[in-house]
Write a structure and sequence with these properties.
Two copies of one chain form a homodimer. The first copy, chain A, is an alpha/beta fold and about 450 residues long. Helix content of chain A is about 40%, strand content about 20%.
Chain lengths: ~450, ~450
């Protein structure tokens, strides 16, 4: 089905953003074909539908570049605990009991939430990836999926790795998944090679991950300098800071998405910029887990690093709300620098859209001919969005999930007038509750 | 009309919070009369209505203890500017052009948003208070209203005050308003004496404000130590820090609500505790305006200070979302202290409910017999609220305005199934847009 969306104000394709009135024609292949002044387009084919979007705002779908979808089942478990205690006493024991079926229901739950908050694409780093991929397929969402690889030994006083055993097994699983699913679901699924982090993967695993990602021409998705522990352990092991060490392993590729990037030095910012790697900034999760400090966002932006935005998993956020992440990220940075101009609303809107698409190597995040029809409609007739001020701040500082009415991916509606179309939400919510209760 | 609300999970009346299943009977005087196990109550009078709240959560209405409602018209004006520049080039010129009619429409706009986000009471500090009071009356909301008094001279190199001229005039306006409206609108309106701050009011004005507030037995509402400028100017003028200076003026009363309270020393925390004054913590506004640092919330709580929660005006937030303020406040504190346990979800839920009622001297904020029927229903069958974990974190870290379905004040519905009943929302939004455009 092709669509002609009329009457909406449409996010401009470049920053500083505004919302000019435009009509948008979407081909039945799910591509934005034309963007024109109101009234200049007509539904050109017999199998096209006119969508009246009066009083609405048309946005590119939001792109969440770092999450762990099944962790939505663990939402609310161990709130207010310190990160190491939270991981050891709450997350790891439960994750060990999560099988493929559990992962599927967790992903369905996350997909319901993401579609409702206007997220069209997510970048996933977890386990039981086949189950997750099948849910992405059925949900109609777009995702970049990677199997989370770790070869650090669990016991022992020091830090020890087992590359020859665990590491090689992990690589084999990661490779198999990445090959099998890349390009599947009408191209909505792409894949990544996803080593966990610099203190949870051996040097060999990181080196091989980089080689594999290059060979398969897929994203390399990794956690980077999220916590002081990670920084300290990496320095202790290699006398190198995390980004420096990743670079020495060949892991800083133009196709690398490094999540968090909090404890990064000025010279590492330059290094990331020169390697053209992307950051997935996760401000809400960092604050909630008390990682401390703030990611050097103004420095990243000044150096030309592609900074995208993620929510992280719902267990550490506790939502998958990209609007919240935009606002919290921006105001946290302002306050941390004692400078209201340290970052701007435009920066954060770009992170959540265009920069996310760039990070994941997909032609989306902008409403422009030739781009994927991953789109969201916002109801501008809402008291929290009045007055309309025609700038990025209007959206970043005021809008929320309550304003999202419709979500489209690849030219297909996943939500219309707040009703989910591809997922049986009621059944998913009740199954998810039972499944989460069973993990206690 | 009396109501029997059945089938809901109801917020417990004490922290650590949980949500046991309870039925709640509300008298036609707007008072919570009975709270009992499910099935134990029946609609006892002929003029009562049974409300089926299955799958819903019943909360006390949220209490916003510091805002400037008409500033919703200035939402989005001067985002990303430094506070002094924002005030001088954006806020003050526009505020000077805002007349009573403008204030009324701004308050209507804010009321629409507040009712939608589950706020039932707000504590207001602004100008043209009669216009604001009339809107509170028609909207059905509850509010504590105070006329914002300033006697600092606008020009001049140093800081000069004009108590004998401006200050006395301001006091007269503030007193007249406070007397005239206290207890009006079926008791939904209470009033305050509202001197602006320690660096914008003369010592005489502060001393007289305290006397007046005591004499009239109303709230004293003031800004306290919001910015470093305010701290520096107060120290420069009086060799006292802001809370110390307020105390020397007699302004730290048990009925004092001091907004912000960011740049406060440990000894001032003790002083506030000993005077039993309340803080209106405004984390989102503080972050957005880059005030820097973080209010000493763990110290306030440890000392027994009554900490409530506010959004501040929508021009500096840019929303009136108390859910957001709970979450942002809590996660900001955790991160600032490098300690996920520095504050807990329970602390923030209490701030937004019970502590807010205590600050404003109203019998609300708790679902208990004898308390005002200011209530909110939340739809728990929402993907961002599954799984239900029966604790404060479930609400504080995951819920948002999209989950609020019904709002009641004084036993009367202001919103049912997301439809506003007391205000003509569509007309208000269109008038507000035109009015805001006219202020440019």
């Amino acid at each position: 089905m092709a669509y002609l969306i009329t009457g909406a104000k449409v996010l401009s394709s470049e920053s500083p953003y505004s919302f000019p009135a435009r009509d948008v024609f979407i081909s039945d292949e799910g591509i934005i074909e034309k963007v024109a002044l109101p009234g200049k387009l007509s539904a050109s084919s017999t199998h096209s539908d006119v969508v009246d979007a009066k009083n609405k705002i048309l946005l590119p779908g939001l792109i969440n570049t770092h999450t762990h979808a099944p962790m939505s089942l663990l939402r609310g478990v161990g709130d207010d605990l310190h990160l190491p205690q939270w991981l050891r006493t709450c997350m790891w024991p439960r994750e060990a009991r999560m099988d493929a079926k559990t992962m599927a229901i967790g992903t369905q739950l996350a997909a319901c939430e993401m579609i409702r908050v206007g997220t069209t694409t997510f970048n996933e780093h977890y386990f039981h990836m086949d189950a997750i991929a099948r849910v992405v397929d059925e949900s109609g969402m777009r995702a970049c999926l990677g199997y989370s690889m770790i070869d650090r030994k669990k016991s022992g006083d020091g830090i020890e790795f087992d590359f020859d055993g665990k590491g090689k097994d992990e690589l084999a699983i990661g490779e198999k998944f990445a090959k099998e699913w890349n390009g599947k679901a009408d191209g909505r699924i792409t894949t990544s090679i996803s080593p966990h982090a610099t203190n949870t993967c051996s040097k060999e695993l990181l080196v091989e991950s980089a080689r594999l990602a290059k060979r398969l021409d897929v994203i390399l998705h990794i956690h980077l300098a999220e916590t002081r522990t990670e920084l300290a352990e990496t320095l202790g092991l290699y006398k190198k800071r995390p980004a420096e060490f990743l670079d020495s392993c060949g892991c800083l590729l133009p196709s690398t998405v490094a999540a968090h990037g909090v404890y990064v030095s000025k010279s590492e910012v330059k290094l990331l910029a020169s390697r053209k790697s992307s950051i997935a900034h996760c401000p809400v999760s960092n604050l909630k887990l008390a990682s401390g400090g703030a990611a050097p966002i103004p420095e990243y932006l000044a150096a030309g690093v592609n900074v995208s935005l993620g929510t992280d998993g719902a267990a550490s956020n506790n939502s998958l709300d990209m609007f919240e992440s935009m606002k919290v990220g921006a105001i946290e940075q302002k306050n941390f620098r004692f400078d209201a101009a340290a970052v701007k609303a435009d920066d954060y809107l770009k992170m959540a859209t265009e920069a996310g698409a760039k990070a994941l190597g997909i032609k989306a995040g902008v409403i422009k001919p030739g781009h994927l029809a991953d789109l969201v409609l916002i109801d501008a007739k809402s008291p929290n969005l009045v007055p309309f001020t025609d700038n990025a701040g209007w959206l970043v500082y005021s809008a929320g999930p309550q304003n999202v009415t419709d979500t489209m991916v690849n030219g297909k509606w996943l939500m219309r007038e707040r009703k989910l179309l591809t997922l049986d939400e009621e059944k998913i919510l009740s199954t998810a509750q039972k499944t989460a209760d069973g993990l206690k």
